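[recover] target loaded
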């Protein structure tokens, strides 16, 4: 009986005498073997904490005076390997009359150099916009990690983080 080139799934040739029961069984056994391999690969990635998206979102509107963590946007997780690369995508939904900076903080120290900036035109009234920051980090040591969003009001009298679209997503790129 011939098989497909990639997954070795059996099939009958058009000239073969049909045998539905035998063909169905052969196909089911081959498909199950292929799926067992896929399941093992997915389980290995998940066990290593890899390729699993982690998502957080602001859970209330929040006024910013100076620098503040944005509530609801802390992602906490554990890695079992060293040097795990992570891609982080942050969106800051901000109402302001001044300059705002949104940062991504890793493990409570410093911030990624890729910050989101919202700078109004001189004399502009209070306005609202969503700005994004994307960056990568390498989690050097295995263990517990946290990624959080922080807001910084650099000028003006108003900076409000709006719950509607303020989110953080982190994706481990490898184990």
């Amino acid at each position: 009986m011939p098989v497909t080139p990639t997954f070795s799934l059996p099939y009958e040739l058009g000239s073969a005498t049909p045998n539905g029961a035998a063909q169905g069984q052969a196909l089911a056994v081959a498909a199950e073997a292929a799926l067992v391999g896929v399941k093992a690969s997915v389980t290995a990635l998940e066990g290593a904490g890899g390729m699993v998206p982690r998502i957080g979102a602001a859970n209330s509107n929040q006024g910013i005076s100076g620098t503040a963590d944005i509530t609801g946007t802390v992602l906490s997780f554990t890695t079992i390997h060293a040097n795990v690369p992570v891609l982080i995508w942050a969106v800051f939904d901000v109402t302001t009359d001044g300059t705002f900076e949104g940062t991504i903080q890793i493990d409570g120290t410093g911030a990624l150099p890729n910050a989101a900036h919202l700078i109004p035109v001189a004399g502009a009234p209070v306005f609202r916009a969503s700005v994004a920051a994307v960056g990568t980090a390498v989690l050097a040591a295995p263990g517990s990690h946290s990624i959080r969003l922080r807001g910084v009001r650099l000028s003006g009298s108003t900076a409000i983080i709006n719950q509607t679209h303020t989110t953080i997503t982190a994706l481990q790129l490898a184990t």
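[recover] notes: The chain has a mean pLDDT of 83.
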